[in-house]
Amino acid sequence: MSKQLEKQGSDKVIEMTDVWKSYPNNVRAINGINLHIEKGEFVYVVGPSGAGKSTFIKMMYREESPSKGDILIDGVNITKLKHKHIPYIRRKIGVVFQDFKLLPSLTVFENVAFALEVIEESPSVIKRRVMDVLDVVLLKNKARSLPSELSGGEQQRVAIARAIVNNPEVLIADEPTGNLDPDTAWGIMDILDEINHRGTTVIMATHNKDIVNTIKKRVIAIESGRVVRDEVRGSYGYES
Asked: Which SUPFAM superfamilies match (predicted)?
C-alpha cells in the first residue's frame, strides 16, 4: 500500500485539523475548523446561505482542497493524496446531490450499475449489488425505467442507490430534500436513516428546519466559515 493511503488507527471516520480555505478572489470560505465525526454517526450541517457549508462538504471528498490544515477520511490524510489516489478514497464516500445528476439516457439499473462498472466489478456482482440497493430504496420495480419516467423523489432515491452501491463508509448528502415536496422529503429521510442504521456514517447539509428539529441528530452549524455550534442532539437554530 502506498504510504499516502496508509491508515492511522481510529474510530473517527472524518477528522479536520486547523482547516482553512481561501479562494483566488481572496474570499475566505473556511476559517480554522477543527472537528471529528465518529463511525456510524448521523450529522446535519446547517447554516445560512454563503456560510461555507458547500466548501466544507466538498473538501470531504476532495472536490475542493484546503488552503491549510489536514483532513483525514477513515485514517487517510486526503489533503496529501496524489491525484491518482483520489478515486481510491472516493470509493469510501458516497455523494448525493440536490439535483440528482442521473444520466438521462440510462435506465435506473444502468445509472446505479455505472458506479460499479468504473471499478470493473464482474457482471454477476453488479447485478446482485444493484438489485440489493434498489430494494433498500424501494425501487426494484423501476429498474428498467428512465429518469424521465420517474418523479423527483424517485430520482433522488436512484441517486442514493448509486451512492451506496459501493458500500461506502460515509454517505454525504448535499441538500438531498431541497427540490422535493414535504411528504417526499420525509420518505428520503426514512431511507437515509435506514442506511445509517446499517452502519454507514451520514453527513447531510440541509436548510430543512422541520427535518432537523424532528429527527434529532448531531448538528454542526457553520457561519462565516466557522463552526459556531456542535450539538449532540441539536436544533436547526435559524429561520427557514
From this structure: P-loop containing nucleoside triphosphate hydrolases
